[in-house]
Amino acid sequence: MAERTNPITPAGFAALRERYEQLFAVDRPAVVEIVHWAAGNGDRSENGDYIYGRQKLRAIDRELGQLSKKMKAAQILDPSQQGDRSRIFFGACVTIADVDDVHRTITIVGDDEADASNGRIGWNAPLSRALRGARVGDVKTVNLPTGPKEWEIISIDYPLGE
């Protein structure tokens, strides 16, 4: 079974790397120091600092493992390098309107950098999948948990290169 790649913007990858480095270089050593100090205080079975520190260390190690897997599977795609800017692909900033003429602007980003409250929709989200490849003026139906909803593509933009 082939590994699944995960598209991500350069900024999204930088955020993953920054989080990994923060955990690995700052947070984990601080917790290791606390656990080491607490272990020297005698009975570990009733030592709250030791028990909590070990739990915190396991949580950090688990997150480091998850971040490492995400970074290995990441496929960094720069939306400013998109050749066909007339269609919706990864990194597109899209304005859509529903049948009530309510406009919504979204940016299609990697699943690991999605933030729906800020209009950043993951590449594999239902709305993103429905919009892929569409052009301005196309009407796409999105199957939502509340039922199907139609969206018309009003505009498509991509970030400019440096």
From TrEMBL:
Keyword Repressor: no
Keywords, sorted A to Z: DNA-binding, Elongation factor, Protein biosynthesis, Transcription, Transcription regulation
UniProt GO BP: DNA-templated transcription elongation; regulation of DNA-templated transcription elongation
Record-level Gene Ontology MF annotations: DNA binding; RNA polymerase binding; translation elongation factor activity
InterPro entries associated with the record: GreA/GreB_C_sf (IPR036953), Tscrpt_elong_fac_GreA/B (IPR028624), Tscrpt_elong_fac_GreA/B_C (IPR001437), Tscrpt_elong_fac_GreA/B_fam (IPR023459), Tscrpt_elong_fac_GreA/B_N (IPR022691), Tscrpt_elong_fac_GreA/B_N_sf (IPR036805), Tscrpt_elong_fac_GreB (IPR006358)
Record family assignment: Belongs to the GreA/GreB family. GreB subfamily.
Protein name in the entry: Transcription elongation factor GreB
